[in-house]
Amino acid sequence: RKEVEQDPGPFNVPEGATVAFNCTYSNSASQSFFWYRQDCRKEPKLLMSVYSSGNEDGRFTAQLNRASQYISLLIRDSKLSDSATYLCAVFSGANNLFFGTGTRLTVIP
Amino acid sequence: GAGVSQTPSNKVTEKGKYVELRCDPISGHTALYWYRQSLGQGPEFLIYFQGTGAADDSGLPNDRFFAVRPEGSVSTLKIQRTERGDSAVYLCASSLWGRETQYFGPGTRLLVL
Fold first, then answer.
1. Tens-place pLDDT, residues B59-113
2. Would you call A43 and B45 a contact, using CB atoms and an 8 Å cutoff?
3. Which of A17, A61, A70, B104 could link A74 by a cystine bridge, Cβ 3.0 to 4.6 Å?
4. Residue B73 pairs with which residues in a beta bridge?
5. A27 in contact with chain B, both atoms CB, cutoff 8 A
6. What residues in B contact A104, CB-CB < 8 Å?
7. Is there a contact between B43 and A101 if contact means CB atoms under 8 Å apart?
8. CB–CB of A99 and B42 under 8 A?
9. What is the pLDDT of residues A14-63, one digit of tens each?
10. d(CA B94, CA B47)
């Protein structure tokens, strides 16, 4: 079983839509969680860290559910510029981040 | 300030050749990571340095891969006897002291013909 599993999509949504991505992790001792955004042929860039209480940054909301071992990312009022691949990442007691395969989002005019 | 830089940005080589990929982390970051990303996949961990020492090299796929960070700053990933399967984007990331937010460089796109 992979450390982190993520639906690869693609998700194609109209502008203004709300879209949600989930990511499950296998190690219940995992301690830190992140969402990264990756544009085509670019490096991953941190979108937001995910805290136990949930956190929001503008149109983006991240949630952590430890009981079910998943993290989620909600994007409200999607913009064309949100089109990218969204990677979840988890520190699982090791010294490195485990990444999901990424979920590709395309926002359509 | 300056982010993580990597050189070269692209490298084309022939099967069996030796390549070196360089990473210059954010100044003051003690933790440095190498990842490899294949098409359609997320980054996959290769090796982690804390200062000058390789604290975790469990992700290196075989003994053809080796990395150094002799002065605790710049790191070089070395691949011997390259194979076509080594073709990927090699990403470097750094963080202040480890186990928190990692900042990625632009990557080196390696193509082995």
1. 999 999 999 999 999 999 999 999 999 999 999 999 987 667 899 999 999 999 9
2. no
3. A61
4. none
5. no
6. none
7. no
8. yes
9. 999 999 999 999 988 888 899 999 999 999 999 999 988 889 999 999 99
10. 12
Q: Are B34 and B47 in contact (CB under 8 A)?
A: yes
* Binary contact (A97, B43; C-beta < 8 A): yes
Taking contacts as CB-CB distances below 8 angstroms, the residues of chain A near B56 are 94-96
CB atoms near residue B89 (< 10 Å): 19
Looking at this protein, which amino acid is placed at residue B60? L
* Total residue length of chain B: 113
Residue B57 near chain A (CB below 8 Å) = no
Residue A94: pLDDT band with limits 50, 70, 90: low
Q: Tell me whether residues B100 and A96 touch, CB distance under 8 A.
A: no
For residue A23, CA distances in Å to A8, A26, A56 come to 10, 10, 17
pLDDT in tens, B53-69: 888 999 999 999 999 99
Give the phi and the psi of residue A105 in degrees, each rounded to 5. -115, 130
> How far is it, in rounded angstroms, from Cα A39 to Cα A32?
23
Task: Look at phi and psi of residue A22 and say left if phi exceeds 0, alpha if psi is from -120 to 50, else beta.
Answer: beta
CA distance A48 to A35: 5
Q: How many CA atoms does the CB half-sphere of B84 hold within 13 Å?
A: 1
CB-CB contact of B88 with B70 (8 Å): no
